Amino acid sequence: MKSSTPASQTSPGLGFVHIVEIWMQEQTHGLGSLRDGCGHSVNGLQARTFGIWTLLSSMIRCLCAIDIHNKTLYLITLCTFFLALGHFLTELFVFGTAAPTISVLAPLVVASSSILGMLVGLQYLEAEPGSRQKKRN
């Protein structure tokens, strides 16, 4: 019987983040509603690229929530949060194309808290050979 570890408690949190990201991805298909920090509308290609990135990262995070003990998938998921944090920080502080509004600050808070939670969970992660997959003979 496994004890409850922070790594296994992270799984519901990742599932919630996945659900929110799916909703956000659906919102980005309203292509005219996306705007840069200066108030200009972004073009369709930019909006679709952002939507696909959001969908891809949410799929990775959902898979990690399903198989939380897969260390490789756990580390890839952690990297998606670092990428999201880096993206929004550079848009906000380096390029100046994002204004400090709730739509920018919310992903920063989610990415930061997810990184902290996953780093804490990483030290408790029990690396199971092959995760939930069948062992090969």
Automatic annotation (TrEMBL):
Q: Cellular location of this protein?
A: Endoplasmic reticulum membrane
Q: Report if keyword Lipid metabolism is assigned.
A: yes
Family designation:
Belongs to the ERG28 family.
- UniProt xrefs under InterPro entries: Erg28
Q: Give one GO biological process term.
A: sterol biosynthetic process
Keywords carried by this UniProt record: Endoplasmic reticulum, Lipid biosynthesis, Lipid metabolism, Membrane, Steroid biosynthesis, Steroid metabolism, Sterol biosynthesis, Sterol metabolism, Transmembrane, Transmembrane helix
Source species of the chain = Sus scrofa
> What protein name is recorded for this chain?
Ergosterol biosynthesis 28 homolog
Pfam families annotated for this entry?
Erg28
Q: Name one GO cellular component term.
A: endoplasmic reticulum membrane
Membrane topology summary: Multi-pass membrane protein
Membrane spanning residue stretches: 73-96, 102-125
